[in-house]
Structures are given as structure tokens and as C-alpha cells.
TrEMBL record:
It is found in: Periplasm. The lineage of its organism: Bacteria, Pseudomonadati, Pseudomonadota, Alphaproteobacteria, Hyphomicrobiales. GO terms for molecular function: peptide transmembrane transporter activity. It comes from Rhizobium hainanense. InterPro entries: Peptide/Ni-bd (IPR030678), SBP_5 (IPR039424), SBP_5_dom (IPR000914). It comes from the Bacteria. GO terms for cellular component: ATP-binding cassette (ABC) transporter complex; outer membrane-bounded periplasmic space. The keyword Transmembrane does not apply. Residues 91-436 form the Solute-binding protein family domain. Pfam families: SBP_bac_5. This is Peptide/nickel transport system substrate-binding protein. One of its GO terms (biological process) is peptide transport. Belongs to the bacterial solute-binding protein 5 family. SUPFAM superfamilies: Periplasmic binding protein-like II (SSF53850).
């Protein structure tokens, strides 16, 4: 998932970026780094250097939903509740330690005492209420309002009961409200720091004040994000004094820098390059599949794709298993539809797998009267792991059934830009919580980027999603989800899955770290250690 403007989930432009990116870039050189503490030189902890393919332009979760934002923000912020990412993705305590439903629409939560923000203040119920309040989230002119529309539509308001007790009041009985409070955007920020910032969103989004194990020391556009250890983090003192996430766009350069000792970790390595790292005695590969599906979007307003049979033909002519077996060396899989097993009772085990039927594809093209119109496939030059070779394979498969397909490179953030040639392009969809409502519906609904960029919208799909939001019984939710999948993946195709994503890291030996089965990088206490620190 890359970032996108307003309400989508996957193209490297963040909400409000259109107006603010230029200002942010100009101001980045003037965003002051936090002053080094008096005992910084005496701090003998190592610094961790990570080579990444890209950094988010915002470190504020309500402003960024993307693969790279998930990775960074997990170190900067803490959410109200958390997901057991090393287990079954169930909800567990975090900033809130316990909760009780006072009524079907009133959730009372006890907060963890002694949580210290990056500014040294202790978290109270006032910070929680503010984080989910009108100034930051609920009002239409609030910076987080697009995130409210995708993640928190059931929320009415938050009440302060006492310094360590809050009540979340919802508009209706919400079967996934606890999961919402464990989603990436359900973070608590320092109300005092926000107010002292004076409403300057450009500077706040680059250096927000959260409660995570690291605080933003500096942000340099198109270069790096530097995080300093937050030793008062409630999870404990981080093993690294500082973490630098440096942008190294080319895979070969990330690997070369890793092997040369310039970096300790290199992210997003493609399967065909893993052996280069494992051939080094001083390095290893970690990682694997994550709950993210690589997809293509379809612009049904493009004249060549207006007839759904053309889009259906494109779906049928992709040999997904061949892509997994050859380009991914069998290290991931083809899911049965745009879904994830972590959905639990909503997961459709019997949903049909994707068919590969080039003969039927050619017949559909003939029936639709396709006459060789060019179909452009947009690729963001390996923003996604192995994006370019996968795109080339898809183009070849489409050409094999008579489609005039052409691959076109676009800059990060230009994936959805409107033009007469916009037809289809690379994207992704992440299973953010163990339910398809946020992870699936809101990405493709009227609140999502396909509608915002006038690419795809379907009133029946939106109606089904609205029904799902208030449906409590899991079996009924699963039936609605089945209808929604069939609609967007076949009846009126808006997207199609290529394969499940996987993330591989090259790691210097001596660093003890195992990635989560997700985009988030857990670098906090207990998850990261340096062998050389042992004595």
C-alpha cells in the first residue's frame, strides 16, 4: 500500500499533500532536530541504519495510510488497543488496559497509568479525547477527517470520566469498534504539544508527538527520517540510541550498501536478489508474506475498459501461479479473492480461486468488440517488491490474448493522475484489522481513492458496505462480503489480485530482530537487540 491523497490506500501522495507538499519540502530544512541530550555522547547504545525504498512524507497516522507509513509510524506512536500481530491478530490491551461495554453504544476504557509522551508529559484521558475529537478527527475541516471517513465512521464522541477513564460513544452498535481502536490510525497524541504547535499542520505532520519507543528527531524530504530513542516509553528503553531510515530507491544500491557495512538492514528485497545477501557470511534474510495483496485497479471510465467484459478478459488472462512460481520463487501465494485468513469468521474459505483461461478471455474480448485500443499499465518503478517484473509479465500475458497492452512508468504519487490513457496500474490492499470492513470496503467505497480520482464507483457496492457496517452477526457479514467480492472482482471489475505480498529484509548478523508478519517494523524494547551489547 502506498500513500494517497484524501481517502485511498496506495499511491505515494498523502492526504492534504497537494497543497502542502511544496511547503513541506521547503520547510524541511528548517524543521529543527531535537537537541542532543547532555549524555548523548555517553550513551553507548548502537545506532541502527536502515536502507528503505521510500519514506512517508508524513509521520502522522491520520495523514498517511501506506506500506511505508505503517513501517515508520509503528515506532513513533501507540494505539489505544493493539493487534496480536505475532499471533492471530486478535485485539489486546495497549494504551487502554481494560474495557467494558456500558451499553451497545458506550464503551468505557481504563487507561494505562504512567504512559509518557515524547514531550515528557504523562498521558491522561484528555489526550485520548482530543486525539479522537473534532479538532483533529471528527470535523470536516479537521486534518484527520478523511481517516474518520475510512476508519471511524461509527464514532460519535469521546467523554472524559476521570484522568484515566474515557468513554467512546458510537452512533450505532458497531461489531468491530474494538478492532477500529487497534487500527494503525487509532493513536493517541499529546494534546499539549498539538496546541503548542499552534495549528501548523505542515510542521506537526513531520514531527508529531506520540508515545512510541522513538521520537522524530529530524525529517528531510526525499532523504531520511531520523528517530531518537524515547527512553520513557512504557514498553521499555529501546536497544538502539537512534534509528535512521534512509531512502535508497534502487534495490542494487540497498544491497550494496548493506554488504559494504553502510546499513544494518535493507528493506523490500525481491526474491531473485536474496541469494546475493545470503552468500555473505555476515548477513541473513528474514521476512515473508504479509497481509497485503498486490492488485491492479481498472479505470472503467476509460473507453477501452468501459465494457466489463474487457476487464473480465484481462482478469482471466493473468497466470497468477506462474508469476508466484517464477518471479517470486514460490515464496508467496495466490489468495482466493481479495481477502485474508486473518478475517476469521468472515474469511470465505470456499470462495473460488482465480481462473486462468486465455481462451475465454479472447472470446470475451471478441464479444465486447475490443478493437486493439491501447491499454496502459502504470508501474511505480519497484515501489512494490518486484513490481516491474510482475508488470512486464502481466503485459506479456495480455498481449498473448490480443490486448494492446503497454507498460508505463509513473512517478511516485502519479499512479492515479487523470489522463486520456489512464487504464490500469499497480496498487495494493492491506488487511489492517481482522475484518473486511476497513481493510476492504472503505478502500474501494465512495470514501476511497477510486471514487476520488473518478476511476471506479458502484452504488450497489457502497450499499452493501453500508449494510455490513451495522450488521453484527458474523455469518451475515460473511454473506454480504461474498456479494461485495463478486461485484468488484467480476461483475463490475474495479480491481483484481495478482498475488499476496511478501516483504524480505537483509540484516547484518549481530542484530537480533525478527520482523512482524506485517509492514510494521517493531524496533522497540524486547524486539530488537544487538549481539555486541551482550557482556
Amino acid at each position: 500500500m502506498s500513500e494517497f491523497l484524501l481517502t485511498g490506500f496506495n499511491s505515494p501522495v498523502t492526504r492534504r499533500t497537494t497543497l502542502l507538499m511544496g511547503a513541506a519540502a521547503g520547510l524541511s530544512a528548517f524543521v529543527p532536530a531535537l537537541s542532543a541530550s547532555a549524555d548523548d555522547n555517553a550513551d553507548k547504545r548502537p545506532e541502527l541504519r536502515i536502507a528503505v525504498q521510500m519514506n512517508p512524507v508524513s509521520q502522522e497516522p491520520v495523514d498517511a495510510a501506506s506500506n511505508v507509513a505503517f513501517r515508520n509510524n509503528y515506532s513513533i506512536h501507540e494505539t489505544v488497543l493493539a493487534l496480536d500481530m505475532r499471533g492471530d491478530f486478535s485485539v489486546k490491551p495497549n494504551l487502554a488496559t481494560s474495557w467494558t461495554w456500558i451499553s451497545p453504544t458506550v464503551l468505557e476504557m481504563k487507561l494505562r497509568p504512567g504512559v509518557i509522551f515524547h514531550d515528557g508529559r504523562e498521558m491522561t484521558a484528555e489526550d485520548v479525547a482530543f486525539s479522537f475529537g473534532p479538532e483533529r478527527l471528527l470535523n470536516k475541516d479537521a486534518p484527520g477527517y478523511p481517516t474518520y471517513r475510512t476508519n471511524f465512521t461509527s464514532l460519535d464522541h469521546v467523554e472524559v470520566v476521570d484522568p484515566l477513564t474515557v468513554r467512546f460513544v458510537t452512533k450505532f452498535q458497531d461489531p468491530i469498534f474494538l478492532q477500529r481502536l487497534a487500527s494503525y490510525a487509532a493513536v493517541v497524541i499529546s494534546k499539549d504539544a498539538w496546541q503548542k504547535n499552534g495549528g501548523n499542520w505542515t510542521t506537526w505532520r513531520q514531527k508529531p508527538v506520540g508515545a512510541g519507543p522513538y521520537k522524530v528527531e529530524s525529517y528531510t524530504a526525499n532523504e531520511s527520517v531520523v528517530l531518537a530513542a524515547h527512553d520513557q516509553a512504557y514498553r521499555g528503553k529501546p536497544a538502539a540510541k537512534r534509528v535512521t531510515l534512509r531512502i535508497v530507491p534502487e534495490v542494487s544500491s540497498r544491497i550494496a550498501g548493506l554488504l559494504a557495512g553502510d546499513y544494518d538492514i535493507a528493506t523490500d528485497l525481491p526474491p531473485d536478489q536474496l541469494s546475493v545477501v545470503t552468500a555473505s557470511t555476515g548477513h541473513e534474510i528474514v521476512g515473508g508474506p504479509v497481509p497485503n495483496n498486490r492488485i491492479l485497479f481498472f479505470d472503467k471510465n476509460n473507453p477501452a475498459l468501459k465494457d466489463p467484459r474487457v476487464r473480465q478478459a484481462l482478469i482471466l488472462s493473468i497466470d497468477r501461479q506462474a508469476i508466484v512460481d517464477t518471479i517470486w520463487n514460490g515464496r508467496t501465494k495466490v489468495p482466493n479473492g481479495l481477502q485474508f485468513e486473518l478475517y476469521g469468521p468472515i474469511y470465505l474459505k470456499d470462495y473460488p480461486a482465480y481462473k486462468y483461461d486465455p481462451d475465454q478471455a479472447m472470446q470475451l474480448l471478441k464479444d465486447a468488440g475490443y478493437n486493439g485500443e491501447e491499454i496502459e499499465v502504470r508501474s511505480q518503478n519497484n515501489y512494490y517488491t518486484a513490481e516491474n517484473p510482475v508488470t512486464q509479465a502481466v503485459v506479456a500475458m495480455w498481449q498473448a490474448v490480443g490486448v494492446n497492452a503497454k507498460m508505463k512508468f509513473v512517478e511516485s504519487g502519479k499512479l492515479f493522475d487523470n489522463s486520456p490513457t489512464r487504464a490500469t496500474g499497480n496498487w495494493s490492499s492491506t488487511g489492517q484489522i481482522p475484518d473486511p470492513y476497513i481493510s476492504f470496503f472503505t478502500q474501494f467505497s465512495a470514501a476511497g481513492s477510486l471514487t476520488s480520482f473518478k476511476i471506479w464507483q458502484n452504488a450497489d457496492f457502497d450499499a452493501l458496505g453500508a449494510k455490513m457496517e451495522t450488521t453484527v452477526d458474523p455469518a451475515d457479514r460473511a454473506k454480504i462480503f461474498r456479494d461485495m467480492l463478486h461485484l468488484i472482482e467480476w461483475e463490475d471489475p474495479g480491481v483484481t489480485v495478482l498475488h499476496q505480498n511478501a516483504v524480505f529484509f537483509g540484516v547484518r548478523k549481530g542484530i537480533k530482530w525478527q520482523p512482524l508478519p506485517a509492514f510494521q517494523m517493531d524496533l522497540g524494547a524486547g524486539s530488537l537487540a544487538f549481539e555486541e551489547q551482550k557482556s
